[in-house]
Amino acid sequence: MFTGIVEELGEITAVENLGDSCRFRVRGPVVTEGAKHGDSIAVNGVCLTVVENDADWFTADVMAETLDRSSLGALAEGSRVNLERPMALGARLGGHIVQGHVDGTGQVLERKPSENWEIIRISLPADLTRYVVEKGSITVDGISLTVVDAGPDYFTVSLIPTTLALTTLGIKQPGDPVNLEVDVVAKYVERLLANSGQGAGQ
């Protein structure tokens, strides 16, 4: 479980093609501190498992399913990535509940800079629109954000200088893909309501 509060802006230092999968080597001295084989680290919002690690890097295998369903397939050597370790039991939940299970990908459509913040418009897959509401939570490339405007096929988020400086959203440009994870609470509510309706009709 993660919170969507990015701890570190890391870098892909190597990509090894394994046929139906690949292995990333990621530089991230903050998130590798105390890490060991089998630990989880979120990379651009995708929960990956540490295979090997040293003082400032770790490797993780990414299966074809993950490459197909997320933007990780577009990463190359030199790509910057958002990194976060799992939330410790009893720690503050600074963002919102993030599972590290990407629901789909969007695309940066537009950036509107202002004096003290920036608004970014991102495309939204049709099957995710029902989960995204104004002032609700959404995870973009592993970053917990608040939705400003929820359109029929897009949403906007407002980014403060800290987010722009310390995450990949500071460098993403129109056309770039991003990973999206909607609020898991909305999905549970939908499922419960659907089951409740079935039960009432029996």
Brief descriptors of the model:
single chain; 202 residues; mainly beta; six-stranded antiparallel β-barrel; six-stranded antiparallel barrel; 12 strands; 14% helix
Summarize the structure in words:
Helices cover 14% and strands 40% of the residues. With 202 residues, it is mainly beta. Strands 1-2-5-4-3-6 form a six-stranded antiparallel β-barrel. It starts with 7 loop residues before the first strand and ends with a helix.
Structural class: mainly beta
Number of helices: 3
Helix content: 10-25%
Low-confidence stretches: none
**Shape designation:** globular
* Adjacency order of strands in the biggest sheet: 1-2-5-4-3-6
Q: Could you tell me how far the N terminus lies from the C terminus, measured between alpha carbons in angstroms? A: 36 Å
Give the averaged pLDDT, no decimals. Answer: 91
- Give me the count of strands: 12
- Main sheet, how many strands, which sense, barrel? 6 strands, antiparallel, barrel
SSE succession = EEEEEHEEEEEEHEH
Could you give the topology of this structure?
Layout: E1 8-17, E2 21-27, E3 40-43, E4 46-53, E5 57-63, H1 64-69, E6 80-84, E7 104-113, E8 118-123, E9 137-140, E10 143-150, E11 154-159, H2 161-166, E12 177-182, H3 184-200
In short:
The chain has 202 residues and is mostly beta strands.
